[in-house]
Amino acid sequence: MKRNRLIFCRQWVARMASIIETVVALVVLLAILVAGVRVLLDVQDLFLAPDVDEAFTTFLRSAFNVVIGIEFVKMLAKHSPGSAIEVLLFAIARQMVVEHTSPMENLVSILAILLIFVIRKYLFVPAFGAHMPGEDTFGTSSLNRSPSDAKSEEDED
Q1: For residue range 97-108, what is the model confidence (pLDDT) as tens digits?
Q2: By C-alpha distance, which of 91, 89, 96, 90 is closest to 115?
Q3: CB–CB of 10/132 below 8 Å?
């Protein structure tokens, strides 16, 4: 009986966290739409600004922020390590392209990108986090099964 309450509690917490995460994603999506309008205004400023370089930097900053926001929302929706890696890559790229950083900061950024690609190539596990602890690949809880069911599955292997 306590095991069933524990399972129910875990499932309820996971659902609530998922709902809150979805609400946050929707709020971020709304902010992205507002920021997208700002990007369009920055394009107009490129034609009218006396300092084109500064206007272009402002445009790039706004555009990168929108792209990073979109990738962040995708990360919240997909729950995949690959989408988290993409957010990190865009954030590092933005820092390198938009900000006026020193050569040492550029080197650290390049090494960070290299490390991300090495991790993605050699340590990336596509199914990481695909299901809740205590669940198999199909989402059925191993905690709900009786010991005889688990034993019969072991006999089949």
Answers
A1: 888 788 999 999
A2: 89
A3: yes
- Rounded CA-CA distance 75/64 in Å is 16
Residue 96 CB partners (closer than 8 Å, separation 6+): 106, 109, 110
d(CA 33, CA 155): 56
Tens digit of pLDDT for each residue in 64-97? Answer: 999 999 989 998 888 887 788 888 888 898 888 8
**Distance between CA 6 and CA 134 in Å, rounded?**
11
3-state secondary structure 107-135: HHHHHHHHHHHHHHHHCCCCCCCCCCCCE
CB neighbour class for 137 (10 Å; exposed up to 12, middle 13-18, buried from 19):
exposed
